[in-house]
Write a structure and sequence with these properties.
The structure is a single chain. Helices cover about 70% and strands about 0% of the residues. The chain contains 6 helices and no strands.
Length: about 160
């Protein structure tokens, strides 16, 4: 079931995502004062729009847990951090706003956007991009969340984001 479109909720979400993207791109941090209310806001949005609230709450839990697992696995394999906990919190927010079923689509769109960005830096702008390069992932997560949300709200995708 496609939720009733809410321009106000869309503005709130996109405004927060843009703010988080700018902060993360500049400082490599996703502040809790924005991400934590955004997680709760997704559950509230689901309730307001008549969504399956438990599926959106589950999206927050699964989203957070998945990126923490990736973070810890990367750190164990490489001996250094690769993701911050803020990324996990932002992915949790994506799960609460878009639902658990949309998490794979969010991560796919986010990862593809980050890959295009890194390849553009390397091959178009001739920047030295290696496995040790720091690239904030928050803006790409924000892009994936925003894209899936808008597609869902406009009826151009199913709840899974495709």
């Amino acid at each position: 079931m496609v939720a009733v479109f809410s321009p106000l909720l869309t503005l709130v979400l996109l405004g927060a995502l843009i703010t988080l993207s700018v902060i993360d791109a500049r400082r490599f941090i996703l502040p809790d004062r924005i991400t934590l209310p955004l997680i709760a806001g997704g559950v509230v949005a689901a309730a307001v729009l008549g969504g399956t609230v438990w599926l959106h709450a589950l999206g927050g839990i699964v989203g957070y847990s998945a990126l923490v697992l990736i973070e810890k696995s990367y750190e164990r394999a490489r001996g250094r951090p690769g993701l911050g906990r803020g990324d996990a919190k932002l992915f949790a927010a994506g799960g609460t706003w878009c639902g658990a079923l949309a998490l794979p689509a969010i991560l796919l769109f986010s990862s593809l956007a980050a890959l295009v960005f890194a390849l553009t830096l390397k091959y178009v702008f001739r920047k030295d991009v290696t496995g040790d390069s720091m690239i904030a992932f928050g803006p790409f997560l924000a892009f994936g969340i925003g894209l899936v949300w808008v597609l869902q709200q406009t009826g151009l995708s199913c709840p899974a984001g495709f």
